[in-house]
Design a protein that fits this description.
Largest sheet: 5 strands, antiparallel
Oligomer: single chain
Number of strands: 22
Number of domains: 4
């Protein structure tokens, strides 16, 4: 196959990969990259091979200007992401225009540059692991294309006939859009030979392209480039990556974490699969994964006040220095598990009085691996990452210890901490906080109050037991079957004269988790039970390969915590909660927010788990490899495991002590007299033994090593395509003072040796030099017999040279 045809195919592959990289990004039009991929391969057949259709250079320039004008309309009004998408579209338009032109070095070069620009834009839009795999394929395609382009350009440059034919491509008539194989020649006669680039190479280069040698060389260069890229990427300091603006500029609401709940907005809520974090539970001793038997609740913030005027739950509690403390150490005798949280860089963390709000199973404790910047607000019950100001950097990963409590009831309870002297009584600050959690207008929500009283009366429970009341009201939403979960908030079924939560309970009884949690909290407060809403995430998609929960925005959830007095708790648990506990209540009907935590050993499930795990590795060690993570993941382990142990080898004191210890074992006291006959004799003996071992090894290498290496070289076909044998010839002659002068050819060098060498030696050298010329400039490939013949002539030459050295000199 001609080099030009190979180049055309390679450029088409490169253009298709560039378009696919853009298609894998966050573009809003996937049809355009697909069209670019199709155009790349269609143009090879239609324009390059059959020549049925091609654009003239002038008309191609006009089409390019129209593409620029068309793209400007998408560029100016948008945000930064939309501007990048407009640039991506423009690059694809220009690429399609170039693909359907007759190819010259100018067109090939423009296509390569456009493809590289597509990679640059795709890197800003695409953060998936698929980008990494395609980028490796793009690198190999680019190396192949550049190699072919260089050969093609040099062939055209040195051949005047081909250069004239090449230049004629850009000088076609302005309106010649269609052209078949038979085109008008310069004399205007039809039927002449079409202008076809023949780009034929010399015999030696043609042999290279007709074999697999070029493919092997490109693969070698690609792997070396890949290794060098990895080394440079991780060795050089990495700055923090700037984040683009919001992904969704407007339109429909989407599921996700919010630091307040508002019920005044109607309409449809879309489920978002944007990744929030990956959470793994591991043993703090063995670091082995632990599978939670209970669906985890990842706590975010706490909402403690309902505003009737705005129909929204908000938080009004501002933690002060007394309420927020550093994470405590775990209590003795309780089993712990390490919770490792890896945040998605796009995850927005809410600001607290101390820094960034963190998500975690609660309560949390610390060990030696836990960051000291994590602050625990024990009163409100949430974690913060302490920063000096609201613009401080958020953590990319953090870990805390959490209690491992598989029992269902115990898992739902959270101890209330009393900071007074008497741990069996609530301190004044805690009582004041609890009083704010049952504060509600008595005359508001009359129908909701009536429904609450009716539910408790129908249940026939102890009206003074807060635990029974709380669980009864929870079952009212989950067990009756009269409530339904929906993300479609239809304003037509809403009563505008009622509060949204009262209307939800009394009338339509359909809504999402925020409605259920908000209504239950109000009903508990009407029974004088302190309650609050917790918003965070529930469960996630469990990855069996990586052993972690993939928590997405669709897993955002809201639930209720009710304060249960000590005397109302189950008798078996009262000793663990001397001042009462918070009881987690989840009134949302089951089946709507459950985590995907099923054991599925199917091939598709395992493949998806592996891909998600690779996505995690890609984000952790490539996309988000900033200076902090580079220090913890690369530099520090390298220093601890490699450099510090090696540093001991250069410690003078340790070596001095080792020598003293070894000498003491054989009865020599180095700290004693400065001269020792015993040590002197031992030194002389070791020196003689060392010389003996050296000469013995040299003899064995000459006697057996050299023949063995020659045999291995023949078996592995060493130097079949190289000229190392000639370099060995020059080295042997140089040892006898016969060196080739600068500018002297091998033939001239051999002719200058006739007076110094014997005829037998010259007869041995001449075939070696001729073979060198055939391999070096003729592209010849040596057979096994030819390699053996060269070795025999080398032995004859060595024998003659040894005789010259032994000849008497006068």
């Amino acid at each position: 196959m001609k080099v030009e045809r190979l180049l055309q195919i390679s450029v088409a592959v490169l253009a298709a990969l560039g378009a696919m990289l853009l298609g894998g990004g966050e573009t809003d039009d996937a049809a355009l990259p697909i069209a670019a991929v199709a155009a790349a391969f269609i143009s090879v057949y239609v324009t390059d091979i059959q020549r049925w259709f091609s654009l003239n250079r002038n008309l191609a320039n006009i089409a390019a200007l129209l593409a620029v004008a068309f793209s400007i309309s998408d560029f100016w009004p948008g945000d930064s992401t939309q501007k990048l998408q407009a640039i991506a579209k423009l690059l694809i338009y220009l690429q399609i225009v170039l693909l359907f032109q007759r190819k010259s070095t100018r067109v090939y070069w423009h296509l390569c540059v456009l493809s590289l620009l597509q990679v640059v834009v795709a890197a800003a839009l695409n953060l998936n692991v698929s980008f990494g795999f395609m980028l490796v394929a793009y690198m190999f395609a680019a190396l192949t294309t550049l190699s072919l382009f260089f050969i093609y350009r040099e062939t055209v440059r040195v051949d005047p006939v081909l250069k004239a034919e090449h230049d004629a491509i850009d000088n076609r008539p302005v309106f010649a859009l269609f052209g078949g194989r038979d085109e008008l020649v310069d004399n205007g006669e039809e039927g002449g030979e079409a202008v076809v680039l023949q780009s034929r190479l010399p015999k030696n280069l043609a042999t290279v392209f007709s074999s697999w040698q070029m493919f092997v060389q490109v693969c070698r260069l690609g792997f070396v480039t890949l290794i060098a890229t990895v080394v440079v990427f991780y060795a050089f300091p990495r700055p923090s990556r700037d984040q683009w603006g919001g992904r969704f500029a407007g339109g429909l609401r989407e599921t996700g974490f919010k630091d307040q709940i508002s019920f005044d907005r109607m309409g449809r809520i879309m489920q978002s699969d944007e990744m929030v974090m990956r959470v793994a539970f591991r043993s703090p001793v063995t670091d082995a994964p632990r599978e939670s038997p209970i669906e985890p609740y990842f706590r975010g913030t706490v909402l403690n006040r309902y505003q009737i005027q705005t129909s929204s739950w908000i938080t009004t509690y501002s933690p002060d220095d007394e309420g927020a403390i550093e994470l405590p150490t775990p209590p003795p005798g309780q089993e712990m598990v390490r919770q490792v949280v890896v945040l998605n860089p796009r995850t927005r963390l809410v600001q607290t009085a101390h820094g960034h709000l963190l998500f975690s199973v609660y309560p949390a404790y610390r060990d030696r691996l836990t960051s000291s910047e994590i602050i625990d607000d024990r009163m409100a019950g949430f974690l913060s990452y302490a920063t000096p100001d609201v613009l401080g950097a958020k953590p990319s990963q953090y870990n805390v210890l959490i209690p491992w409590r598989p029992a269902e009831m115990e898992n739902r309870l959270l101890a209330v901490v009393s900071r007074g002297k008497d741990k069996n009584k609530l301190d004044y600050r805690t009582r004041e906080y609890l009083n704010t959690l049952d504060d509600i207008e008595v005359f508001a929500f009359g129908q909701l109050q009536q429904t609450t009283r009716q539910v408790i009366a129908d249940a026939k429970i102890d009206p003074k037991n807060d635990l029974e009341i709380a669980e009864t009201l929870e079952r009212f939403f989950t067990d009756e079957g009269e409530f339904s979960y929906t993300l479609e908030i239809d304003p037509r079924v809403r009563d505008p004269n009622l509060d949204p939560l009262e209307d939800f309970v009394v009338n339509h009884r359909s809504g999402h988790c925020e409605y259920y949690a908000g209504a239950l909290a109000l009903m508990l407060r009407y029974q004088q039970i302190p309650s609050r809403i917790v918003v965070g995430y529930k469960g996630g998609e469990y990855n069996s390969v990586g052993g972690y929960f993939a928590v997405k925005q669709m897993h955002a959830h809201a639930w209720v915590e009710a304060y249960i007095k000590h005397e109302d708790l189950p008798e078996s648990l009262r000793d663990n909660y001397p001042v009462g506990a918070w009881l987690r209540l989840d009134p949302t009907p089951s089946g709507e927010t459950d985590a995907v935590y099923e054991e599925d050993d199917g091939l598709l499930s395992k493949t998806l788990d592996w891909f998600d795990y690779l996505e995690l590795m890609w984000r952790d060690y490539v996309v988000e490899m900033n200076s902090e993570r580079q220090e913890n993941a690369i530099y520090k382990p390298f220093t601890d495991r490699i450099w510090r142990p090696l540093g001991g080898w250069f410690n003078y004191e340790e070596w001095r002590q080792w020598v003293k210890d070894q000498a003491a074992k054989i009865g020599v006291d180095i700290e004693g007299e400065w001269f020792s006959w015993y040590m002197s004799l031992l030194t002389i003996f070791c020196t003689i033994a060392g010389f003996g071992i050296y000469h013995l090894g040299r003899f064995l290498v000459r006697r057996f090593g050299v023949p063995f290496w020659r045999w291995v070289r023949r078996q592995l076909h060493f130097n079949r395509h190289g000229v190392t044998f000639y370099l060995q010839l020059e080295r042997r002659l140089a040892k006898r003072g016969m060196r080739r002068k600068p500018g002297q050819t091998p033939h001239e060098f051999v002719d200058s040796l006739r007076e110094r060498l014997t005829p037998v030696a010259m007869d041995a050298i001449a075939p070696i030099v001729e073979t060198y010329y055939r391999v070096r400039f003729g592209g010849a490939m040596l057979s096994e017999e030819a390699l053996a013949g060269i070795d025999e002539r080398m032995l004859i030459l060595q024998t003659e040279l040894d005789q010259i050295d032994r000849a008497p000199r006068f």
